[in-house]
Automatic annotation (TrEMBL):
This is Enoyl-CoA hydratase/isomerase. It comes from the Archaea. PANTHER family: ENOYL-COA HYDRATASE, MITOCHONDRIAL (PTHR11941:SF54), ENOYL-COA HYDRATASE-RELATED (PTHR11941). GO terms for molecular function: isomerase activity. InterPro entries: ClpP/crotonase-like_dom_sf, Enoyl-CoA_hydra/iso. GO terms for biological process: fatty acid beta-oxidation.
Length: 223
């Protein structure tokens, strides 16, 4: 996790569907170099609405292709040389929450921002939480994450959020690269993140069932 002396590169999530992880956004994030400090933040009042749920109406093969593209992004984040920092300026849903698992440091500007994996209500469960949540959270915290929405303050206690308030880069440690590579938690995550792959197949099967498709169509009618 080598860090130079240059200014941080700021990447802003801004776009369609309340910053959902559309193919366009995925490609944008795949294109970042992340050799130094990269700050990922958002415009609007939602950090991200999560996965692009419209893909789940396109059939199992389309869902699998999409999920593996998401996984390519996750592997890219975990392999970044520089420090990855997320600055959350709004509510966070679904994969937007899971995306934060793969950051080095997460700042939520306000303690009352909403975090929610509510896609489970539609039949679209969070694949990384289902696959490796037991490695990331205490059982009591995992029960909350998978059963109700929670605030940024609660996310701080769960370890998803590192700090509530303003990002102050000068207060963060700046170890030499040969030390940072050893202590980075992303180095630990990459050793088991592929456990999510079998879950993708289960999600593609569950999320394209008739009942799930019906719930998704009703959701789109209301939104």
């Amino acid at each position: 996790m080598a860090e130079g002396s240059g200014r941080p590169v700021v990447v802003t999530l801004e776009g369609e569907k309340r910053n959902a992880f559309t193919y366009r956004l995925i490609e944008k994030l795949l294109g970042i170099e992340c050799k130094d400090i990269t700050v990922i933040t958002n415009s609007g009042n939602v950090f991200s609405s999560g996965l692009d749920l419209s893909v789940f109406l396109q059939g199992r093969d389309a869902v699998l292709e999409y999920l593996f593209r998401i996984h390519r992004l996750v592997k890219k984040l975990l392999s970044c040389e520089g420090r990855l920092i997320a600055v959350v300026n709004g509510d966070v849903y679904g994969f937007g929450v899971e995306f934060l698992y793969f950051m080095d440091y997460v700042v939520a500007a306000k303690r009352d921002y909403k975090f929610s994996l509510q896609g489970v209500n539609l039949g679209v469960f969070p694949p990384y939480t289902a696959a490796v949540g037991r490695r990331l959270f205490a059982p009591a915290h995992l029960r909350v994450v998978l059963n109700r929405e929670f605030t940024a303050e609660e996310a701080f206690h769960f370890g998803i959020v590192s700090q509530v308030g303003d990002l102050e880069l000068k207060k963060l440690f700046s170890p030499p690269a040969y030390v940072a590579e050893v202590v980075s938690h992303r180095r630990w995550l990459v050793s088991f993140v592929d456990e999510a792959i079998p879950v993708f197949y289960k999600l593609a099967e569950v999320a394209t069932r008739e009942e799930t498709v019906k719930r998704l169509r009703e959701f789109f009618k209301k939104s």
